[in-house]
Amino acid sequence: MKKVIFLVDMQSFFASVEKAKHYHNLNRPLVVSGDPTRRSGVILAACPLAKKSGIQNGERLWEAEQKCPGLVTVPPHMQEYIDNSIVITEILESVTDLVEPYSIDEQFMDVTHSQKLFGDPYEIASYIQHEIHSKLRVFARVGIGENKVLAKMACDNFSKKNENGIFFLKKEELEDTLWPLPIEKLFRAGGKMSQHLRRRAIRTIGELARTDVNKIKKEWGIHGQVLWMNAHGVDYSPISLTSTNGQKAIGNGMTLPRDYSEKAEIKVVLLELCEEVCRRARLAQVMGQTVSLGVSGASYEIRTGFHRQQKMAEPTNMTMEVFRYACDLLESFWDREPIRRLHVSLSSLHSDQTIQLSLFEEQRGENIQLGYVTDELVKKYGKTAVIRAASLLPASQVKERSAKIGGHYK
Amino acid sequence: MSNFLKRGNLMWEGSRMMLPEHIQALRERKRKATHDPQPNLTEDELTELGHVAMDSLYHTIEVTVVYWQDGYDQRVTGVIDEIDSLGKRLKLNGEWINITVLKRIDRV
Question: Matching InterPro entries, A to Z (chain B) (predicted)?
Fold first, then answer.
């Protein structure tokens, strides 16, 4: 029996949530924008009305305002979007227990065995649309396919353009539906990859699908093979219920409000990132043994930066230990050019129930405990209750970040 | 080698954009969904626990009390300060615990 997989995608999710709150703005163009005085001040979501005037996500706020006079601008409320996303998960779970969130506004579900109860795929899809709309005033688009990649491409390429927001991309009909589309529309074919393909005279998805897979493998390896499979609509991935369970790594990144070029300044925010990562590790009761540091250079045109990792002597979730290794990485790989973005992550996770005591460092046990004690204080009195002295320097981002999720206000 | 790769959920887990806070919220929800029922100890079992509790009270012996709270096990270690046999509860580290939610009392 063929499976029936849905990808449910929310139309202009953030903007729709905001519109539902500010009901008097229902018929006016609305955008959700980050703080315009900072780098995060770009359009995060634009409602369909605003999109009609040519506003695109990721634009600067002033560009959008120029395109559309009378534009309503609201700041983001990330926590509300997360809460709403979970309400949607609950709605979807009323149809089937096989629901896998893919991002904040997209979720996969397997309705193969719900058809006896809820009707054919189209009926289920419009039932879901109705439920979500009546609860949250958000319009959902549904891509249907026999596997995840077909559902995703059905949604991205067809449901979003459909009047009713539903499209069933059937494998037998790919030749007429998917294959005439330009190669850029293929799932996982990014800008760079599409360029490469175009250079080899592969301009449509169909042209890739008709190419001999061995040639593609020779040229682009596994990634090419994956693309070729996507073009044929072949995907064996299951709907995974456990994909958010196990944690393989804990990482946090931040885009700086301005480019940092002084080592001392960078170290301040690096320490703060290490603290955040370690705190999350302690909360999850794990320790990590591998620390990795990613740095992006300031220039958008010439992309510079590095991503390097290092194994530490012992698993740890102590901020200062992780910081020391992160600093080492920074010292050895940083090209001394201004930087825009930093990312720290901790992987090879172990339980924190057993620790290696050090022969040379008598205090290690106590130092580890110290982290947990500060966490308790932070839990009780807020994220800025205990901060390091270095975080009082102007370069610090602690205060700014404590009020944010994903770089935007809660 | 087949022309079709089977690599589990790798493509999707590798390509998704999930906020840590979102994943945290999903986990929290799942945790709540897997609630434990309230324990229902027999009279004999409760008597057994009573002995350990009394010993702790009279001889200041440290014990670990495991009790149920909103679907989860809570664990407290300390010396029992008071036993209220009428109210069917005992006091540990300044907090009252109802005996209906008790799961275990063990000497440390």
Answer: YolD
